[in-house]
Amino acid sequence: MSSSERTAHRAMFPGSFDPVTYGHLDVIRRGRRLFDQLVVAVGRNPGKDPLFTSDERVEIIRELVEEIVREEPAEAEVRVESFDGLTVDFARQVGASVLLRGIRNLSDLQSEVQQALTNRQVAGLETAFIVAGQDFAYTSSSLIKQVTALGKDLSPLKTMVPPQVARKLKEKKKAGHPALERLIERADEARG
Fold it and tell me: Fewer CB near the last or first residue (10 Å), C or N of the chain?
């Protein structure tokens, strides 16, 4: 079978990306080396309190992906799309045969393996795991939101998120975004 006759290996990297981190971008970079095509799927999770709208997240990620593609033009094509509903349904819609997931630690692995088994059983989708680089092992979007909401000094963000994301986080804090205000309220309640 010639390369033109074979099916492209398309992976989908789903997440809420609220906000996108250097760890997410690391998975995108490395995923481009493993697959022919990569779809970054920005989901709307009704169980989460979003800081950025879906449109804002898509716009930020597209800008960052353009930078990655300029730096590494020979790697796989990437497109960024938002979706509602089940991840497996959207994966089918975009023609992905593999879900790409980043693993930071053992607790991530435990929950991700359970989800991967379910996705294989229910939808016939395989999952490929990329272990986070050491610099990203403890960075999460939740932690970044906490630092933004509760921190007086936001300079630690520069090690966790790209500059344009850090700027937008500072703008959200200055504007008193409701999701950040709720984090502050929960922290105050926990203190008693």
Answer: C
Phi and psi at 35, nearest 5°, equal: -125, 160
Intervals of CATH 3.40.50.620 along the chain: 10-136
**Active-site residue (options: 30, 104, 120, 140):** 104
pTM exceeding the 0.85 threshold for the entire prediction:
yes
Spatial separation of the C-alpha atoms in residues 16 and 142, rounded to whole Å = 11
- Catalytic residue selected from 10, 24, 173, 177: 24
Instruction: Record the tokens describing residue 60, joined without a space.
Output: 């930020």
Per-residue pLDDT of the chain (192 residues; tens, 9 = 90+): 344 444 578 999 999 999 999 999 999 999 999 999 999 999 988 878 899 999 999 999 999 999 999 999 888 999 999 999 999 999 999 999 999 999 988 888 888 999 999 999 988 999 999 998 778 778 889 999 999 999 999 999 999 999 999 999 999 999 999 999 999 999 888 887
**Catalytic status, residue 155:** no
**29, 57, 141, 172: the active-site residue:** 141
CATH assignment of 10-136, given 3.40.50.620, 3.40.50.800, 2.60.120.330, 3.40.50.720? 3.40.50.620
Residue 141: active-site member = yes
Q: Are 112 and 103 in contact (CB under 8 A)?
A: yes
Tell me which of 9, 30, 44, 48 is the catalytic residue: 48
Asked if 140 is an active-site residue, the reply is no
Strands (E), 31-115: 37-43, 77-83, 98-103
